[in-house]
Write a sequence for this structure.
Protein backbone atom coordinates (compact mmCIF):
# COMPACT_ATOMS: atom_id res chain seq x y z
CA UNK A 1 0.00 0.00 0.00
CA UNK A 2 1.31 3.42 -0.92
CA UNK A 3 2.62 5.45 2.01
CA UNK A 4 1.77 9.06 2.61
CA UNK A 5 4.92 11.06 1.84
CA UNK A 6 4.55 13.32 4.87
CA UNK A 7 5.17 10.37 7.18
CA UNK A 8 8.22 8.96 5.45
CA UNK A 9 11.36 8.22 7.47
CA UNK A 10 15.01 7.71 6.60
CA UNK A 11 16.46 4.27 7.24
CA UNK A 12 20.22 3.84 6.98
CA UNK A 13 21.02 0.61 5.16
CA UNK A 14 23.79 -1.58 6.67
CA UNK A 15 26.18 -0.86 3.79
CA UNK A 16 25.88 2.89 4.45
CA UNK A 17 26.64 2.75 8.17
CA UNK A 18 30.17 4.11 8.31
CA UNK A 19 30.71 4.70 12.03
CA UNK A 20 33.18 2.17 13.40
CA UNK A 21 33.20 0.92 17.00
CA UNK A 22 35.95 3.44 17.72
CA UNK A 23 33.84 6.23 16.19
CA UNK A 24 30.90 5.26 18.41
CA UNK A 25 33.12 5.09 21.48
CA UNK A 26 34.71 8.46 20.64
CA UNK A 27 31.32 10.02 19.91
CA UNK A 28 29.88 9.02 23.26
CA UNK A 29 32.96 9.72 25.35
CA UNK A 30 33.17 13.08 23.58
CA UNK A 31 29.49 13.74 24.22
CA UNK A 32 30.18 13.60 27.96
CA UNK A 33 33.80 14.76 28.04
CA UNK A 34 32.74 18.37 27.95
CA UNK A 35 32.13 21.45 30.01
CA UNK A 36 28.51 20.53 30.81
CA UNK A 37 29.65 17.35 32.55
CA UNK A 38 32.36 19.29 34.30
CA UNK A 39 29.76 21.77 35.54
CA UNK A 40 27.43 18.99 36.74
CA UNK A 41 30.35 17.50 38.68
CA UNK A 42 30.89 20.87 40.33
CA UNK A 43 27.20 21.05 41.28
CA UNK A 44 27.40 17.53 42.79
CA UNK A 45 30.20 18.75 45.06
CA UNK A 46 27.40 19.86 47.38
CA UNK A 47 26.82 16.13 48.12
CA UNK A 48 30.38 15.62 49.38
CA UNK A 49 32.97 13.57 47.49
CA UNK A 50 32.02 10.04 48.60
CA UNK A 51 28.26 10.49 48.12
CA UNK A 52 28.82 12.22 44.79
CA UNK A 53 30.96 9.33 43.50
CA UNK A 54 28.27 6.82 44.50
CA UNK A 55 25.67 8.95 42.72
CA UNK A 56 27.79 9.19 39.56
CA UNK A 57 28.29 5.41 39.39
CA UNK A 58 24.71 4.41 40.23
CA UNK A 59 22.84 6.99 38.18
CA UNK A 60 25.14 6.70 35.16
CA UNK A 61 24.99 2.89 35.11
CA UNK A 62 21.18 2.85 35.09
CA UNK A 63 20.94 5.67 32.55
CA UNK A 64 23.42 4.21 30.11
CA UNK A 65 21.86 0.77 30.24
CA UNK A 66 18.88 2.57 28.71
CA UNK A 67 21.24 4.15 26.17
CA UNK A 68 22.52 0.70 25.18
CA UNK A 69 18.97 -0.59 24.74
CA UNK A 70 18.03 2.32 22.48
CA UNK A 71 21.33 1.92 20.62
CA UNK A 72 20.43 -1.70 19.89
CA UNK A 73 17.12 -0.51 18.44
CA UNK A 74 19.07 1.70 16.03
CA UNK A 75 21.31 -1.22 15.08
CA UNK A 76 18.34 -3.52 14.40
CA UNK A 77 16.31 -1.04 12.35
CA UNK A 78 18.66 1.63 10.96
CA UNK A 79 16.16 4.32 12.01
CA UNK A 80 16.63 7.34 14.27
CA UNK A 81 15.29 7.44 17.83
CA UNK A 82 12.55 9.90 16.95
CA UNK A 83 11.41 7.66 14.10
CA UNK A 84 11.43 4.58 16.34
CA UNK A 85 9.37 6.30 19.01
CA UNK A 86 6.46 6.23 16.54
CA UNK A 87 6.15 2.53 17.37
CA UNK A 88 5.00 3.33 20.91
CA UNK A 89 3.44 6.81 20.71
CA UNK A 90 1.97 6.45 17.22
CA UNK A 91 3.00 8.08 13.97
CA UNK A 92 1.34 11.38 14.89
CA UNK A 93 1.72 10.90 18.63
CA UNK A 94 5.49 10.93 18.16
CA UNK A 95 5.26 14.67 17.61
CA UNK A 96 4.98 15.12 21.40
CA UNK A 97 8.24 13.32 22.32
CA UNK A 98 9.86 14.90 19.26
CA UNK A 99 8.98 18.33 20.63
CA UNK A 100 10.32 17.33 24.07
CA UNK A 101 13.47 16.05 22.38
CA UNK A 102 13.79 19.29 20.46
CA UNK A 103 13.56 21.46 23.57
CA UNK A 104 16.01 19.32 25.53
CA UNK A 105 18.75 19.30 22.90
CA UNK A 106 18.34 22.98 22.20
CA UNK A 107 18.61 23.50 25.96
CA UNK A 108 21.81 21.43 26.22
CA UNK A 109 23.28 23.28 23.26
CA UNK A 110 22.55 26.53 25.07
CA UNK A 111 24.12 25.24 28.32
CA UNK A 112 27.35 24.21 26.61
CA UNK A 113 27.42 27.37 24.53
CA UNK A 114 27.00 29.58 27.60
CA UNK A 115 29.89 27.88 29.40
CA UNK A 116 32.09 28.08 26.31
CA UNK A 117 31.10 31.73 25.84
CA UNK A 118 32.26 32.35 29.41
CA UNK A 119 35.65 30.97 28.34
CA UNK A 120 35.63 33.34 25.37
CA UNK A 121 35.00 36.24 27.78
CA UNK A 122 38.08 35.16 29.77
CA UNK A 123 40.10 35.03 26.55
CA UNK A 124 38.92 38.51 25.57
CA UNK A 125 39.91 39.71 29.03
CA UNK A 126 43.42 38.30 28.58
CA UNK A 127 43.82 39.55 25.00
CA UNK A 128 42.15 42.98 24.92
CA UNK A 129 41.28 43.65 28.55
CA UNK A 130 37.50 43.30 28.40
CA UNK A 131 35.83 42.64 31.78
CA UNK A 132 35.24 38.98 32.68
CA UNK A 133 31.62 37.83 32.74
CA UNK A 134 30.33 38.42 36.26
CA UNK A 135 32.14 41.75 36.54
CA UNK A 136 30.59 45.12 35.60
CA UNK A 137 30.46 45.31 31.82
CA UNK A 138 31.30 41.62 31.45
CA UNK A 139 28.11 40.84 29.53
CA UNK A 140 29.56 42.15 26.26
CA UNK A 141 32.36 39.57 26.40
CA UNK A 142 29.84 36.81 27.01
CA UNK A 143 27.60 37.97 24.15
CA UNK A 144 30.61 38.04 21.84
CA UNK A 145 31.40 34.50 23.00
CA UNK A 146 27.86 33.37 22.16
CA UNK A 147 28.23 34.85 18.66
CA UNK A 148 31.61 33.15 18.12
CA UNK A 149 30.33 29.77 19.30
CA UNK A 150 27.19 30.03 17.18
CA UNK A 151 29.25 30.72 14.06
CA UNK A 152 31.35 27.63 14.82
CA UNK A 153 28.17 25.58 15.31
CA UNK A 154 26.73 26.77 11.98
CA UNK A 155 29.93 25.70 10.24
CA UNK A 156 29.88 22.32 12.00
CA UNK A 157 26.27 21.36 11.24
CA UNK A 158 26.58 22.48 7.63
CA UNK A 159 28.92 19.54 7.02
CA UNK A 160 26.41 17.08 8.57
CA UNK A 161 27.02 13.86 10.51
CA UNK A 162 30.49 13.55 9.01
CA UNK A 163 31.45 16.65 10.99
CA UNK A 164 30.66 14.81 14.23
CA UNK A 165 33.26 12.17 13.39
CA UNK A 166 35.88 14.74 12.37
CA UNK A 167 35.39 16.89 15.47
CA UNK A 168 35.38 13.86 17.76
CA UNK A 169 38.54 12.34 16.29
CA UNK A 170 40.49 15.57 16.67
CA UNK A 171 38.89 16.70 19.90
CA UNK A 172 39.11 13.48 21.88
CA UNK A 173 42.92 13.57 21.93
CA UNK A 174 43.05 17.15 23.20
CA UNK A 175 40.27 16.48 25.70
CA UNK A 176 42.08 13.50 27.23
CA UNK A 177 45.35 15.48 27.42
CA UNK A 178 43.54 18.37 29.08
CA UNK A 179 41.86 16.18 31.70
CA UNK A 180 45.18 14.59 32.59
CA UNK A 181 46.73 18.03 32.90
CA UNK A 182 43.96 19.34 35.13
CA UNK A 183 44.09 16.17 37.24
CA UNK A 184 47.77 16.76 37.95
CA UNK A 185 47.11 20.40 38.89
CA UNK A 186 44.20 19.52 41.19
CA UNK A 187 46.05 16.80 43.07
CA UNK A 188 49.09 18.99 43.50
CA UNK A 189 46.79 21.40 45.31
CA UNK A 190 44.91 19.01 47.61
CA UNK A 191 45.09 15.38 48.76
CA UNK A 192 42.42 12.69 48.64
CA UNK A 193 41.96 12.74 52.44
CA UNK A 194 41.28 16.48 52.23
CA UNK A 195 38.74 15.95 49.44
CA UNK A 196 36.93 13.21 51.37
CA UNK A 197 36.91 15.25 54.58
CA UNK A 198 35.34 18.35 53.02
CA UNK A 199 31.58 18.93 53.33
CA UNK A 200 29.44 21.69 51.89
CA UNK A 201 27.82 24.17 54.29
CA UNK A 202 24.50 22.83 55.58
CA UNK A 203 22.44 25.43 53.72
CA UNK A 204 24.09 24.42 50.42
CA UNK A 205 24.16 20.63 51.04
CA UNK A 206 22.63 18.37 48.37
CA UNK A 207 21.11 14.99 49.33
CA UNK A 208 21.97 11.75 47.54
CA UNK A 209 18.43 11.58 46.12
CA UNK A 210 18.70 15.07 44.67
CA UNK A 211 22.08 14.14 43.22
CA UNK A 212 20.62 11.00 41.62
CA UNK A 213 17.88 13.04 39.95
CA UNK A 214 20.29 15.76 38.85
CA UNK A 215 22.65 13.33 37.16
CA UNK A 216 19.82 11.18 35.79
CA UNK A 217 18.40 14.23 34.02
CA UNK A 218 21.85 14.93 32.61
CA UNK A 219 22.48 11.34 31.47
CA UNK A 220 19.03 10.44 30.15
CA UNK A 221 19.15 13.35 27.71
CA UNK A 222 21.64 11.31 25.67
CA UNK A 223 19.39 8.25 25.61
CA UNK A 224 16.95 9.85 23.19
CA UNK A 225 19.78 10.16 20.66
CA UNK A 226 20.93 6.58 21.22
CA UNK A 227 19.73 5.13 17.92
CA UNK A 228 21.03 8.04 15.85
CA UNK A 229 24.71 7.30 16.43
CA UNK A 230 24.78 3.55 17.12
CA UNK A 231 23.98 1.63 13.96
CA UNK A 232 26.80 -0.92 14.06
CA UNK A 233 27.33 -4.24 15.83
CA UNK A 234 28.92 -2.52 18.85
CA UNK A 235 25.70 -0.61 19.45
CA UNK A 236 25.23 -1.88 23.00
CA UNK A 237 28.67 -1.89 24.59
CA UNK A 238 30.32 1.08 22.85
CA UNK A 239 27.71 3.71 23.80
CA UNK A 240 27.71 2.47 27.40
CA UNK A 241 31.50 2.39 27.71
CA UNK A 242 32.01 5.71 25.97
CA UNK A 243 29.27 7.62 27.76
CA UNK A 244 30.10 6.16 31.18
CA UNK A 245 33.83 6.85 30.79
CA UNK A 246 33.18 10.42 29.70
CA UNK A 247 30.70 11.25 32.45
CA UNK A 248 32.68 9.63 35.27
CA UNK A 249 35.98 11.16 34.23
CA UNK A 250 34.81 14.70 33.64
CA UNK A 251 32.23 14.82 36.45
CA UNK A 252 34.90 13.58 38.86
CA UNK A 253 37.35 16.26 37.72
CA UNK A 254 34.69 18.97 38.01
CA UNK A 255 33.79 17.59 41.44
CA UNK A 256 37.40 17.41 42.67
CA UNK A 257 38.35 20.80 41.21
CA UNK A 258 35.35 22.52 42.80
CA UNK A 259 36.08 20.99 46.22
CA UNK A 260 39.80 21.81 45.93
CA UNK A 261 38.99 25.47 45.25
CA UNK A 262 36.54 25.47 48.19
CA UNK A 263 39.29 24.05 50.43
CA UNK A 264 42.04 26.44 49.32
CA UNK A 265 39.83 29.54 49.24
CA UNK A 266 37.78 28.69 52.33
CA UNK A 267 34.55 29.45 50.44
CA UNK A 268 32.17 27.23 48.49
CA UNK A 269 29.89 28.84 45.92
CA UNK A 270 28.07 26.52 43.50
CA UNK A 271 27.76 29.45 41.09
CA UNK A 272 31.52 29.21 40.55
CA UNK A 273 31.44 25.59 39.39
CA UNK A 274 31.68 26.47 35.69
CA UNK A 275 34.83 25.26 33.92
CA UNK A 276 36.09 28.71 32.95
CA UNK A 277 36.10 29.97 36.53
CA UNK A 278 37.73 26.76 37.76
CA UNK A 279 40.39 26.82 35.01
CA UNK A 280 41.17 30.44 35.81
CA UNK A 281 41.46 29.82 39.56
CA UNK A 282 43.68 26.79 38.97
CA UNK A 283 45.92 28.91 36.77
CA UNK A 284 45.53 26.68 33.70
CA UNK A 285 45.80 29.57 31.25
CA UNK A 286 44.65 30.27 27.71
CA UNK A 287 45.12 26.72 26.41
CA UNK A 288 42.59 25.40 28.93
CA UNK A 289 40.02 27.95 27.78
CA UNK A 290 40.54 26.91 24.15
CA UNK A 291 39.98 23.25 25.06
CA UNK A 292 36.77 24.19 26.90
CA UNK A 293 35.57 25.84 23.69
CA UNK A 294 36.50 22.74 21.68
CA UNK A 295 34.66 20.38 24.05
CA UNK A 296 31.57 22.53 23.65
CA UNK A 297 31.73 21.92 19.92
CA UNK A 298 32.10 18.13 20.36
CA UNK A 299 29.01 17.94 22.59
CA UNK A 300 26.93 20.37 20.57
CA UNK A 301 27.62 18.59 17.28
CA UNK A 302 25.62 15.68 18.75
CA UNK A 303 23.04 17.96 20.40
CA UNK A 304 22.28 19.87 17.23
CA UNK A 305 22.03 16.78 15.03
CA UNK A 306 19.56 15.24 17.50
CA UNK A 307 17.53 18.47 17.69
CA UNK A 308 17.47 18.76 13.90
CA UNK A 309 16.25 15.16 13.62
CA UNK A 310 13.43 15.90 16.05
CA UNK A 311 12.41 19.03 14.14
CA UNK A 312 12.35 17.06 10.87
CA UNK A 313 10.07 14.46 12.48
CA UNK A 314 7.63 17.17 13.62
CA UNK A 315 7.75 18.98 10.26
CA UNK A 316 8.60 16.28 7.67
CA UNK A 317 8.79 18.79 4.82
CA UNK A 318 11.85 20.39 6.42
CA UNK A 319 14.98 18.61 5.29
CA UNK A 320 17.71 17.86 7.82
CA UNK A 321 20.20 20.58 6.91
CA UNK A 322 17.71 23.50 7.08
CA UNK A 323 16.42 21.95 10.31
CA UNK A 324 19.97 22.02 11.71
CA UNK A 325 20.34 25.69 10.81
CA UNK A 326 16.99 26.48 12.45
CA UNK A 327 17.78 24.74 15.76
CA UNK A 328 21.24 26.35 15.84
CA UNK A 329 19.63 29.79 15.56
CA UNK A 330 17.05 28.98 18.25
CA UNK A 331 19.77 27.64 20.56
CA UNK A 332 21.70 30.89 20.13
CA UNK A 333 18.70 32.87 21.40
CA UNK A 334 18.05 30.45 24.29
CA UNK A 335 21.69 30.83 25.40
CA UNK A 336 20.93 34.43 26.33
CA UNK A 337 18.20 33.48 28.87
CA UNK A 338 20.58 33.40 31.90
CA UNK A 339 21.50 37.01 31.11
CA UNK A 340 17.83 37.93 31.40
CA UNK A 341 17.13 36.08 34.67
CA UNK A 342 20.52 36.97 36.14
CA UNK A 343 21.79 33.48 37.10
CA UNK A 344 23.14 30.65 34.99
CA UNK A 345 22.88 28.20 37.93
CA UNK A 346 19.18 29.01 38.43
CA UNK A 347 18.46 28.50 34.72
CA UNK A 348 20.48 25.27 34.67
CA UNK A 349 18.68 23.85 37.74
CA UNK A 350 15.25 24.67 36.30
CA UNK A 351 16.27 23.00 33.02
CA UNK A 352 17.33 19.80 34.81
CA UNK A 353 14.03 19.71 36.73
CA UNK A 354 12.18 19.89 33.42
CA UNK A 355 14.24 17.07 31.91
CA UNK A 356 13.72 14.85 34.97
CA UNK A 357 9.95 15.24 34.75
CA UNK A 358 9.45 14.53 31.08
CA UNK A 359 12.22 12.23 29.93
CA UNK A 360 12.13 9.19 32.22
CA UNK A 361 8.49 8.25 31.46
CA UNK A 362 8.99 8.81 27.74
CA UNK A 363 12.04 6.53 27.55
CA UNK A 364 10.28 3.86 29.60
CA UNK A 365 7.29 3.74 27.26
CA UNK A 366 9.59 3.45 24.25
CA UNK A 367 11.69 0.62 25.72
CA UNK A 368 8.80 -1.39 27.14
CA UNK A 369 6.92 -1.18 23.85
CA UNK A 370 9.88 -2.40 21.77
CA UNK A 371 11.33 -5.06 24.05
CA UNK A 372 8.22 -6.38 25.80
CA UNK A 373 5.29 -5.70 23.49
CA UNK A 374 6.96 -6.17 20.10
CA UNK A 375 9.78 -8.51 21.14
CA UNK A 376 12.50 -6.44 19.40
CA UNK A 377 10.70 -6.48 16.07
CA UNK A 378 9.39 -3.24 14.55
CA UNK A 379 8.22 -3.17 10.94
CA UNK A 380 10.14 -0.07 9.86
CA UNK A 381 7.98 0.49 6.78
CA UNK A 382 4.85 0.73 8.91
CA UNK A 383 6.45 3.43 11.05
CA UNK A 384 5.74 5.70 8.08
CA UNK A 385 2.27 4.38 7.28
CA UNK A 386 -1.18 5.73 8.12
CA UNK A 387 -2.61 2.23 7.60
CA UNK A 388 -0.25 0.17 9.75
CA UNK A 389 -0.14 -1.14 13.29
CA UNK A 390 1.54 2.00 14.66
CA UNK A 391 -1.32 4.25 13.60
CA UNK A 392 -3.36 3.33 16.70
CA UNK A 393 -6.24 5.85 16.99
CA UNK A 394 -5.95 8.58 14.35
CA UNK A 395 -2.19 8.24 14.49
CA UNK A 396 -1.90 8.54 18.29
CA UNK A 397 -1.40 5.94 21.00
CA UNK A 398 -3.37 7.64 23.76
CA UNK A 399 -2.23 5.02 26.28
CA UNK A 400 1.39 6.02 25.74
CA UNK A 401 0.57 9.70 26.10
CA UNK A 402 -1.52 9.04 29.22
CA UNK A 403 1.31 7.03 30.81
CA UNK A 404 3.73 9.81 29.98
CA UNK A 405 1.50 12.42 31.66
CA UNK A 406 0.98 10.14 34.65
CA UNK A 407 4.73 9.68 34.83
CA UNK A 408 5.23 13.43 35.10
CA UNK A 409 2.66 13.60 37.91
CA UNK A 410 4.13 10.59 39.73
CA UNK A 411 7.60 12.12 39.49
CA UNK A 412 6.40 15.32 41.13
CA UNK A 413 4.62 13.37 43.87
CA UNK A 414 7.67 11.18 44.55
CA UNK A 415 9.78 14.31 45.04
CA UNK A 416 7.65 15.07 48.11
CA UNK A 417 8.34 11.71 49.80
CA UNK A 418 11.37 12.36 52.08
CA UNK A 419 12.94 8.90 51.75
CA UNK A 420 12.73 9.03 47.97
CA UNK A 421 13.80 12.66 47.64
CA UNK A 422 16.72 12.32 50.07
CA UNK A 423 18.05 8.81 49.40
CA UNK A 424 16.92 7.17 46.15
CA UNK A 425 15.78 9.96 43.86
CA UNK A 426 12.49 9.96 41.99
CA UNK A 427 13.62 9.35 38.42
CA UNK A 428 14.22 5.61 38.25
CA UNK A 429 11.38 4.69 40.63
CA UNK A 430 9.08 6.71 38.39
CA UNK A 431 10.36 4.85 35.32
CA UNK A 432 9.63 1.44 36.89
CA UNK A 433 6.09 2.49 37.86
CA UNK A 434 5.37 3.87 34.40
CA UNK A 435 6.70 0.68 32.80
CA UNK A 436 4.21 -1.49 34.70
CA UNK A 437 1.37 0.96 34.03
CA UNK A 438 2.07 0.91 30.31
CA UNK A 439 2.29 -2.89 30.19
CA UNK A 440 -1.00 -3.29 32.05
CA UNK A 441 -2.96 -0.71 30.09
CA UNK A 442 -1.71 -1.94 26.72
CA UNK A 443 -2.75 -5.50 27.61
CA UNK A 444 -6.27 -4.19 28.18
CA UNK A 445 -6.71 -1.73 25.31
CA UNK A 446 -4.35 -3.08 22.64
CA UNK A 447 -3.95 -6.85 23.19
CA UNK A 448 -1.43 -8.34 20.78
CA UNK A 449 -2.88 -10.84 18.32
CA UNK A 450 -1.40 -14.31 18.64
CA UNK A 451 -0.38 -16.14 15.50
CA UNK A 452 -2.47 -19.19 14.63
CA UNK A 453 -0.72 -22.53 14.53
Amino acid sequence: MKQEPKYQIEVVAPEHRHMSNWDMFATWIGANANNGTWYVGGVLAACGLLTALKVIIASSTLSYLCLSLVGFMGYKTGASTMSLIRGSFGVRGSYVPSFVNLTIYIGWTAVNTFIAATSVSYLLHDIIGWPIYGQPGGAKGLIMGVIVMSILHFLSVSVGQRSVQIVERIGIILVIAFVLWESVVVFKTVTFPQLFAWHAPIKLHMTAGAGMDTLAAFNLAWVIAGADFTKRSGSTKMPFLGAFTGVFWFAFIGLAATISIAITSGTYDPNNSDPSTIASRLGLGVLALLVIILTSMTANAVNLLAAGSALSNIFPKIRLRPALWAVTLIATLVTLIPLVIGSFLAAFTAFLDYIGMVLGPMITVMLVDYYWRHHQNYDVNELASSQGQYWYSHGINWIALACWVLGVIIYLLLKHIPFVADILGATFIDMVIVGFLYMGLMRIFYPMKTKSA
Observations:
- The CA atoms of residues 48 and 198 lie 7 Å apart.
- The chain is about 70% helix and 0% strand.
- Residues 15-355 form a domain with the Hydantoin permease fold (CATH 1.10.4160.10).
